[in-house]
Amino acid sequence: MKIQKFALAAAVLGLLSTSAFATTVAAHNQTTAAIKLEAPAPAKVVNPSGLPRSAVGSTVTLRMTIDATGQAHDIRVVSHDRDQLARSLVAAVAQWQFNPGRKNGTPVSTKVELPVEVAGI
Question: Architecture of 37-117 per CATH?
Answer without folding.
Answer: 2-Layer Sandwich (3.30)
